[in-house]
Amino acid sequence: MARILTTSAFHLLIISSLLSSFSMILVSAEDHEFVKSMDPELFGLKKEKLTHFRMYWHDVVDGPNPSAVTIVQPPSNSSQTRFGLIRMFDNALTQGPEPSSKLLGRAQGFYGSASQEDISLLMAQNFAFVQGKYNGSTITLMGRNSILNKVRELSVIGGSGLFRYARGYALVTTQSFNASKSDDAIVEYNIYVMHY
């Protein structure tokens, strides 16, 4: 009889423990935080700094080795602005405006003619660096580029590697543009980026 009571007490203890654990799981699931503040130093983020980059973006649409290709043609009844045109690019980023200048990285992304009234592009691109301490890091830019304006501004919306948590802006100025023959362009980018 004592053995039956010991076995029953043992089973009762196991069932009680399981029920208690189950109820704790339910309670802790309800207490799960969706969002919480964190100390930036846990990620090695110390002092934020401002860095200025100046480089030249080479958009080659024509010739035997284009760096930008049309992936969507504008409709046949398109406006003067080529509304609907989309191009994907992998453009050289160089230290100077000459195509033979030192390669700093690649601009990879797309642009589309997004206005029916003026020549304005929606641009989304990563500047992927291949030189020095920034090799392997990227800066991500996005925004409206009204190419007939002397200076345009794009937003720095993020980055990777040394540019995690990056924010800032880029001032964009066309150096040369061959609209009559090829659409090839050389564009100066002055990027001001806050990063850790």
Describe the structure.
15% of the residues lie in helices and 44% in strands. The protein has 196 residues and is mainly beta. Strands 1-3-4-5-6-7-8-9 form an 8-stranded antiparallel beta barrel. The model has no long low-confidence stretch (mean pLDDT 86).
Give a brief description:
With 196 residues, the protein is mainly beta. The chain has one helix spanning 2-30, and strands at residues 49-59, 68-72, 86-94, 103-113, 120-129, 138-146, 151-160, 167-177, 185-195. The radius of gyration is 28 Å and the shape is extended.
How does the SSE layout of this entry go?
Elements: H1 2-30, E1 49-59, E2 68-72, E3 86-94, E4 103-113, E5 120-129, E6 138-146, E7 151-160, E8 167-177, E9 185-195
Antiparallel strand pairs: 1-3, 1-9, 2-3, 3-4, 4-5, 5-6, 6-7, 7-8, 8-9
Low-confidence stretches: none
**Rg computed from alpha carbons, rounded to a whole number of angstroms:** 28 Å
| Physical arrangement of strands within the biggest beta sheet | 1-3-4-5-6-7-8-9
What is the number of helices? 1
Query: How many strands?
Result: 9
**Sheet of most strands:** 8 strands, antiparallel, barrel
Please, what is the average pLDDT? 86
**Helix percentage range:** 10-25%
**Element order, helices and strands?**
HEEEEEEEEE
Structural class: mainly beta
Assess the beta-strand content as a share of residues: 35-45%
How would you sum up the global shape?
extended
Distance separating the two termini: 72 Å
Keyphrases for this structure?
196 residues; extended; single chain; mainly beta; 44% strand; eight-stranded antiparallel β-barrel
